[in-house]
Amino acid sequence: MQSTTQPYPLIGVGVVIWRGEQILLGRRINHSNEGVWQFPGGHLEAGESVTGCAAREVKEETGLVVQGFRHLGYTEKTFTVDGKRYITLLVSCEHESGEARVMEPDKCSQWRWFDYHMLPQQIPGPLFEPIEIFMSQLGASQVASQAASQGTDLLALHRSSLLICAH
Question: Whole-prediction pTM value?
Answer without folding.
Answer: 0.86
